[in-house]
Design a protein that fits this description.
3 helices
Length: 124
């Protein structure tokens, strides 16, 4: 099973418009094309949509924090790249950078995870 097939079962991700682009050990990348349903009343990307993109790029967070740096809006495509920063026996720490189609940094997301001995349910 591919990562894309596995995440097709994630109705929240599918309905939010998040697409998983790449998964490998210690790294993943997802994208979100900003549409009207992702906008707030000020016609900017709603913070919850950006948080969702980052969270789904990581998939299994224990705790997270996000810092919004720059606005995005209609027609933008956002990318979340999750990178493993630390891996211990039972926890890990990840940094997720959210950029737009021009490579501008939109937000940073830091997360810790609880690691299980289970294998990821798809082949990398």
């Amino acid at each position: 099973m591919t990562p894309q097939e596995f995440f097709k079962k994630d109705l929240f991700a599918e309905n939010a418009g998040v697409v998983l682009l790449e998964v490998r050990e210690g790294y993943s990348k997802a994208k979100l094309e900003i549409k009207p349903e992702h906008l707030n009343a000020g016609a900017r990307t709603q913070g919850g949509a950006i948080f969702t993109l980052a969270d789904l790029a990581l998939a299994f967070s224990l705790s997270s924090s996000i810092t919004f740096l720059r606005a995005s809006g209609p027609g933008d495509t956002l990318y979340a790249e999750a990178r493993e920063r630390y891996i211990g026996r039972s926890t890990g720490c990840y940094q997720i950078d959210i950029t737009n189609q021009n490579g501008d940094l939109i937000a940073t997301f830091e997360s810790s995870v609880f690691r299980k001995d289970q294998k990821v349910p798809f082949t990398l």
